[in-house]
């Protein structure tokens, strides 16, 4: 009802109060303006109103209308009603202006707030409401308001329905994950069912499509475009980062997959791409975590997969380059099945390997801690046949690889004794930088051996790192009584003039190797009398025992075993040093040493102990200690503390006796 009253003019627009009369037949609103002047003369805001009389022709006589149920009114009654309305509108008249205005009690409305600052417009609205009630128009107004209420009810119903729909949508969204899982499960069942139709016809077609795509990528034996291959090889070699090499290679792979023929992805280019990726990683000393993240990229995985497919078509140089690249990119954490594949293919081409190929291939398997007994057996024979072609770096690398994996190398060691019988064939080059033969330059090139290796007696120019690696390898293999080793060891006397600093890791590693070899000579081969002089031995031992680069980290596995050892009630001593070795836990009075061997002590694919573990165990046993080994692989198979305690009791009771292990 209040909305209908908004048709009154605003007080700022007009100073004439409107006279509102409703015609019940048409329900139209007519506004008749009456002139009015206001004169404020007293502080009590007395108003002198000059009002004219309201003529009857300004009002519409309301006659009887039975349809609206309104009674007839006489003219006098109309005048009285009008005057009542006017007096109620403008207040009580005081022509002389002597009487103060009477305060009228106004009924508070829930629609309008009552305040002292109300203007005449608010009072006019209230008076109009009373006039409507007095003239019997309430029912008509109620009908109009009822229509609006019905409309509002409809709107409320629509909102309620909308809210219900929204709630249903939310419930559907909550169940969307479950529905999607059900759909995925149904889709898998459908795929399985479809693949079984017609004897697996659809699955067979899918495999054929995949094989066709792979064959397009690997068209090695078909027609070739030499110019495209050379251009791709040049782009790969000129790329400055591993990312750029991968980007160039992947672009070519996608082009071949879309129909580029003939494919420039020759086995040589694939091997070169992997080799250059690894080479660029080495150039910037890329962190190990970054290398692993790079190796797990989809594009990199695709390139490695193509390389494994193309491996049988690769040359001996390509196989060695791929294996070397995988060792630098993934280390001992990745490419387990890929290295098995490399060993399988390389075994068929051992006869084509040169000295560089043998050294790189063996070094790759050793750095990845990946055993390949059959391959190494053939590599030893191949190295024996071409022993005169080996460079100093290649000899040191291949011997280190055989020792690291503890693979027998008797044929190669025998050939070294026969080829280098004189001490005069050994030279020591102090401070010479170790050459790198792992890089494949441009297209493919084989290493050309020096002519003096075929003419007369070959000679070897070793640097310090070469001598340290070779000496350590012979110690691990237990072959320190050979001629070649004695010449290498005697050459170390030249390093008496060189200062070994404790500030450099290379110096500490060399000193540690030499110290261990010297201890093995004194303990296992004292009759050879090859141990270092006392002054040089003291110099090497002092540098080798430094803890600057030999800080040992205690694993959670070691802590767990050590905690259970306390429950035995025996006097265990942790981190006990014996001639350069540190034992995990010992019983000093009984000379029992307990070694807690984690995964770094074993081959990752076969689980056999690695060379450095074999050397330590042999030395500790030779020194008179009873060695007990607890491996992580066996420990992880135990369920709970009771089984672990029972396991310790069984491995210790052999050396301690039944009575000493009852407390375990």
TrEMBL record:
Gene3D superfamilies: VSR Endonuclease (3.40.960.10). GO terms for biological process: chloroplast rRNA processing; mitochondrial RNA processing; regulation of mitochondrial mRNA stability. It comes from the Eukaryota. One of its GO terms (molecular function) is RNA binding. GO terms for cellular component: chloroplast; mitochondrial matrix; ribonucleoprotein granule. Residues 592-650 form the RAP domain. InterPro entries: FAST_kinase (IPR050870), RAP (IPR013584). This is RAP domain-containing protein. The lineage of its organism: Eukaryota, Viridiplantae, Streptophyta, Embryophyta, Tracheophyta.
